[in-house]
């Protein structure tokens, strides 16, 4: 490869890199707009107890709700241990029962978090033979 070809490759690389950056900036703007629309659509669907929205030729929008328990962290464990240690009924148990019921208490009393998301799926068109 000679120096002229190398320079041409470097210029081409830089031009492509500039285009990629420009497209990524545009994609970021589109994602912000999409997020705003998603929030509005999810609020509308939630207020009207809708789980599915037909979007004509664009497919179907589905509002999904996922419930999960909050993760365990030091503060949660410390807080729940404090409650266990101040509970006289709990402390009157033998060590094994205390360990079992204490662990169950810590794991089961975590807050439940609900997350909603909007999914779009396309309707498959039937092929005519």
How do the helices and strands line up, and which of them pair or pack?
Elements (H helix, E strand, L loop, with lengths): L2 H45 L4 E3 L5 E10 L4 H13 L1 H4 L3 H14 L3 E10 L8
Antiparallel strand pairs: 1-2, 2-3
Report on this structure.
With 129 residues, the chain is of the alpha+beta class. The chain has two domains: 1-50; 51-122, no CATH class. The protein has helices at 3-47, 74-86, 88-91, 95-108, and strands at residues 52-54, 60-69, 112-121. The protein has a three-stranded antiparallel sheet, covered by helices on one side. It is flat. The two termini are 55 Å apart.
Q: Which structural category fits the helices and strands? A: alpha+beta
Low-confidence regions = none
CA-CA gap between termini: 55 Å
Order of the strands making up the biggest sheet: 1-2-3
Element order, helices and strands? HEEHHHE
Number of E strands: 3
How many structural domains? 2
Rg calc: 28 Å
Number of discrete helical segments: 4
Mean pLDDT: 90
Condensed summary:
This protein has 129 residues and is α+β, with helices and mostly antiparallel strands.
